Amino acid sequence: MSNPASPVKNPLADLVPEIDAALNAALAPQEGCPPELNEAMRYSLMSPGKRLRPALVLMAAEACGGERSEAIAAAVAIEMVHAYSLIHDDLPAMDDDDLRRGRPTCHKQFDEATAILAGDALLTAAFETLATGIPQPERAVRACEVLAKSAGRSGMVGGQTDDLLAENRNERHNLAWLEAIHRRKTGALFTCSLQLGAISVGAQESQIASLTDYARDLGLAFQIVDDLLDWEGDGDEMGKQSGKDAARGKLTFPGFIGVDASRSKASELVTAAKQHAELFRGTGQRLSQLADYVLQRSR
Amino acid sequence: MSNPASPVKNPLADLVPEIDAALNAALAPQEGCPPELNEAMRYSLMSPGKRLRPALVLMAAEACGGERSEAIAAAVAIEMVHAYSLIHDDLPAMDDDDLRRGRPTCHKQFDEATAILAGDALLTAAFETLATGIPQPERAVRACEVLAKSAGRSGMVGGQTDDLLAENRNERHNLAWLEAIHRRKTGALFTCSLQLGAISVGAQESQIASLTDYARDLGLAFQIVDDLLDWEGDGDEMGKQSGKDAARGKLTFPGFIGVDASRSKASELVTAAKQHAELFRGTGQRLSQLADYVLQRSR
């Protein structure tokens, strides 16, 4: 049994340089693209971050026995979608945030029109990256399908819509409803990341299914830990205004079931995620480490 | 020689019912998609319109000897991208329009957050439609690539960005610069429409090249005619506040080179477009009729 007090090594750290190099290359200047637009896209895409989603893509590719280089296009694509979603979520008409990880949000650094357009362009670039960066047409088209379904009206955008609607209406909901929001708002891109990694290396369907199970459990655990960090006001860790979610009545796990029950639930989910990762034996080791690392953030 | 006074039959009219049926089916309710979001997407996608871009997709498919049914997914996808671009362009931070074709714009009918999300979801759905609706993986992935490049940072979004930047800065530009804006802002989706139709039916590269030439000329002619209609304040035809482009100092062809020279230029471009359409002989007849029809709108 691992000692909960001993820090788990960050399994993302050694993947970040190769991810950042690929992100940087993906937004090289291009004829026809206004420099102001490219700068706003780069500002958001290259902002310091954990690169969790692209790392999940690469880890899934490795778990399925492939090379990380085969999945780097999908890793870039998922970070583009993540960056676009943050830009649009931060807009005044949406969450109206001025800071993200201690830096001005895109519409504060540039302006609102540029932020909307940079988000649009990043979302579009994600599909271009999949279509041009995965050489096998069958894999590329499936990757486009999975990304679109995960990010679209019944996935991430749907979850964000329901979240905003609930906030505006001050509706009372139950835990199942909160989980359904998170399953789409955060979980959909988690699941998509792992599936894209697998699809990029031509994985078997059974491998994709195990990664989907892993993603579902880890994604919810990650969200609960995020809620806990916000609830406890750990401003340094979050890099945004602490407790802001709670202050504006946003639904969170600790708000619903309390801090202790939230911690227990995150722990159970991490244990379940690790069981799915263990199906891959040695190649799933990073996924297993990542699950421990996610839980550790909440301590 | 055709008599300029005799009205040209609208070659789009008999395609509209099959396009509208496909658009309607594409946004059927879906589990996980909030009804409010779906309603906003439908409001914009199904708003009355000429369906010019999807019709171009179907006409290109026919010109290349294919069936319209093979290209209907691409027709839906391009109209989704067009609808998303109108929603985002109309936002207060962008062109700030309250009306489009006599109806409230999406953010007036719903709210700003819903409009941003509906646009995002339509853009995403366009790629899902291509990936799932074109059965041959090679064609589907190429369609995704072409759509992304046409709609993205060096295409439509890039053109919109430059247009807004010029407006904000009150910059003086030359005609070549105005054409470069339109080539991306309007022309990119025109070209994409014809290319997608051709790709959907597995056309030859030489056919795609001819359609690209046709699109370039017709797209610019269409934009000049649009500018002329706005300039002359034909409110009924445009269904939006007449002369508004001119009032806010937006760059237009008649503003640059005058009404007569704009009319001549549109006429020359239509003649050139028809020559490209004639390379397809009988199957290109609709494309030829369309060119005449576009010019007729300006008379």
TrEMBL record, chains A, B:
Pfam families, alphabetized: polyprenyl_synt
Listed Gene3D superfamilies: Farnesyl Diphosphate Synthase
Domain of life: Bacteria
A GO molecular-function annotation: (2E,6E)-farnesyl diphosphate synthase activity
GO cellular component: cytoplasm
Classification via SUPFAM superfamilies: Terpenoid synthases (SSF48576)
InterPro entries hit by this protein: Isoprenoid_synthase_dom_sf, Polyprenyl_synt, Polyprenyl_synt_CS, Prenyl_diphosphate_synthase
Top EC class of this enzyme: transferase
Keywords: Isoprene biosynthesis, Magnesium, Metal-binding, Transferase
Cofactor(s) demanded: Mg(2+)
BP term (GO), one: terpenoid biosynthetic process
Annotated PROSITE patterns: POLYPRENYL_SYNTHASE_1 (PS00723), POLYPRENYL_SYNTHASE_2 (PS00444)
Metal-binding in keyword set: yes
Enzyme Commission code(s) on record: 2.5.1.10
Family per record: Belongs to the FPP/GGPP synthase family.
PANTHER family, per database record: FARNESYL DIPHOSPHATE SYNTHASE (PTHR43281:SF1)
Protein name, per record: Farnesyl diphosphate synthase
